[in-house]
Amino acid sequence: MGFCLMRTHYHLIVEVDDGILSVAMQALNHGYAWDFNRRHGLRGHVQSGRYGSRRIADSAGLIATYAYVMNNPVETALCSRASDWPWSSFRGTLGVSERNSFVDDGPVLGCFPCELDPLVALRWAVERS
Question: What is the spatial distance between Cα 121 and Cα 53, in angstroms, rounded to a whole number?
Answer without folding.
Answer: 26
